[in-house]
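#dry-run=false #mode=assembly
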Amino acid sequence: EAGVTQFPSHSVIEKGQTVTLRCDPISGHDNLYWYRRVMGKEIKFLLHFVKESKQDESGMPNNRFLAERTGGTYSTLKVQPAELEDSGVYFCASSQDLRAGPRRANVLTFGAGSRLTVL
Amino acid sequence: AQSVAQPEDQVNVAEGNPLTVKCTYSVSGNPYLFWYVQYPNRGLQFLLKYITGDNLVKGSYGFEAEFNKSQTSFHLKKPSALVSDSALYFCAVRDGIGGYNKLIFGAGTRLAVHP
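#status=ok
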């Protein structure tokens, strides 16, 4: 099966500009997660979709970040306007529904990440 | 609050020697613990997990991890390191609120295996 795909792999923008990151999860995975790793620190949770609904967005830093998952398929994460501290690697992950059983549902499959550099 | 600590920024090992990458955790309730690895320019890859059962968990690429409840540790181990094991390793614990798979990660440990 195809993995989790993220685009772009690297984006360089200036402070104040807008960037949109895209994630295509594994087909059939209802759960989609966004994470971010900033400057070699821990990978931090941003938010979680179950299908098209936001299950948990407690990790979103502020209202400059907007995530959507229209139709419950791919997701976008928009940063507007971007600030210097937004630089980092944004990871997307997906997992199966818990009805698939704990053996399969508990593993997140990650994409390669989108590296964002804000100058 | 759930948390994970990886006390070593980097671990250096000679090829063929055993390796250990340390991880300690703090959770309320029973922990679900994971190790992921990130190779250069690649995404995070799942290595192994502990949910319940045997304290010694075997995973991909010959790695294993030992769950120690009294020490709240979940160290990653391999009996004989390969140069190709050089990568960034992340320990994680599931924040099981709502039964979903929100993971809390450590800061990562860079493993360097020298020929």
